[in-house]
Amino acid sequence: MKVSELMTPEVKTCIERDSLQKIAKVMWDNDCGCVPVVDEENRVVGVVTDRDICMAAYTQGLPLYGMQVQAAMARTMVCCAEDDDLATAEELMRQNQVRRLPVVDREGRLVGILSINDIAREAGKERAAGAKLEIGDSEVAETLGAISEPHGHVLTQFTFGPEEGELEYVPGAPQSPWRKGVNRTR
Q1: I want to staple 20 with a disulfide (CB 3.0 to 4.6 A). Which of 14, 64, 149, 155 is the partner?
Q2: How many CB atoms lie within 10 A of CB 104?
Q3: Beta bridge partner(s), residue 143
Q4: Residue 28: left (phi > 0), alpha (psi -120 to 50), or beta?
Q5: What is the per-residue pLDDT across 116-165, written as a single tens digit (0 to 9) for each?
Q6: Is the dihedral of CA 108, 113, 116, 119 positive or negative?
Q7: 77-119 pLDDT per residue, tens
């Protein structure tokens, strides 16, 4: 089976200068956890995930509307080609511990995205239909297991805050998003 048969062809994208708030809304509205970052020629230059957004907010201590995609995106990404075999895509997912692969054409332009969810759903359809299994249960489990292996923090140390008496972001009106000494612990 080819990647083009399972990929999602209509993909929401963003550019590096978009705000993380805008991309979080795109993810919410489209029930997706990853948005490819493209250049003006629709070539993939990075990806941003829901986790990237969350960790950027946590480590940088800024509101999402105050950060751009470039502050959170992964610049090292793995892509597959639309004419790759599904086994090749699964191996890329396992080796690189990624749940989603941008799919590119011969010119490197984004044409879709393939997720472990796409693969698992197809395996379920094949099994339910009693069809010849092109995607085995053990392949899906092996891929998901490899993706889910802990790999520790790859980032350097961050100073997390705020500490007592420091400024802390409090959601609310954009004109005055900071309050001094607010204790959010319960």
Answers
A1: 64
A2: 19
A3: none
A4: alpha
A5: 989 888 888 877 877 666 776 677 777 777 777 776 655 444 444 555 44
A6: negative
A7: 899 999 999 999 999 999 998 999 999 999 989 999 999 989 8
Encoded amino acid at 146, one letter:
A
Structural domains of the chain, with CATH: 3-148 (3.10.580.10)
Task: Please enumerate in sequence order all residues whose Cβ is within 8 A of that of 89, keeping only pairs 6 or more positions apart, or say none.
Answer: 3, 80, 101, 114, 119
Structure tokens at 108: 């490197």
Which H/E stretch holds residue 140?
helix 137-148
Cα separation of 60 and 58, whole Å? 6
Determine which helix (DSSP H) or strand (DSSP E) holds 120, and give its type and residue range: helix 116-129
Task: At 8, list the tokens.
Answer: 């999602």
**Max Cα–Cα distance, the chain, nearest Å:** 64
Give the pTM.
Answer: 0.74
* Higher-pLDDT residue of 149, 5: 5
Tokens 């100073």 locate to: 159
SS3 156: coil
Residues 44 and 34: their CA atoms lie apart, in Å, by 13
pLDDT of residue 154: 53
CA 140 to chain centre: 19
